[in-house]
Prior knowledge:
By secondary structure, the protein is mainly α.
Amino acid sequence: xxxxxxxxxxxxxxxxxxxxxxxxxxxxxxxxxxxxxxxxxxxxxxxxxxxxxxxxxxxxxxxxxxxxxxxxxxxxxxxxxxxxxxxxxxxxxxxxxxxxxxxxxxxxxxxxxxxxxxxxxxxxxxxxxxxxxxxxxxxxxxxxxxxxxxxxxxxxxxxxxxxxxxxxxxxxxxxxxxxxxxxxxxxxxxxxxxxxxxxxxxxxxxxxxxxxxxxxxxxxxxxxxxxxxxxxxxxxxxxxxxxxxxxxxxxxxxxxxxxxxxxxxxxxxxxxxxxxxxxxxxxxxxxxxxxxxxxxxxxxxxxxxxxxxxxxxxxxxxxxxxxxxxxxxxxxxxxxxxxxxxxxxxxxxx
Length: 350
């Protein structure tokens, strides 16, 4: 749920967005997300009733992230945009960490695993999306991000032995692939589409799936809070990019206001603040409902790109995007649990 994109904790199975940090906000085993069967449901509070508003805000923030990337790359190199993104996002989470008086993990093993997670869930995919948007529209990048559940299902068959695909999920994978071909206009020989940029955007989505699987296999059951883990992960991603960026870019000649504000919004809102929103949503309505935000992101990214950046949109782009989303939804489907049998007369249940 994965995700993309991205700050999940170990056993999370949330489709993450590109804007998220590496570890999703919570998982299906979280008590707040899954009350005990038979327990009295909590009374609705004003905060809980307002979750649709926060859901809409999260969708907007993540959907606009692709527009922010495009605007940011108009003033800075892609790696500089990505470095600013993770740095501003890390500052937001660290500020919240201080407010809540939580600490970063101390285990070297945890830091080692989070270093790998930071690379596959933040540094690499964020950079790939930034480079991709040098040559492809932000609308196409947003649609490519929606393929992450397709990659996740395909990889989980190999990497996660407990995740056996049903016919429906395999059909979803095929439908999603058909949607990608429709978006790219395969019948026209991919004319008018930059294949390198598109491959980078699709590769970024693949990175999210690789990162989620790695986290599930190495950090499941971690005792650290989601905020602590995500803050560490973004710090590590910032360190990675701080080393690499000067090697491949030169210092910007200036700091144009609009691109700089776009990078700030991308990091502070699309990466830091978005994680806090996602974490709250998972706690309130559960991971299944919270992950539905993934399906709104390409719609908002497309609308923003066309309306504000005046990007061209041919008929096959929205049609293909709908096919991709339909396929992604099928790959995330799970068989309904069988109804428990009723106890025989005279027996008791726990």
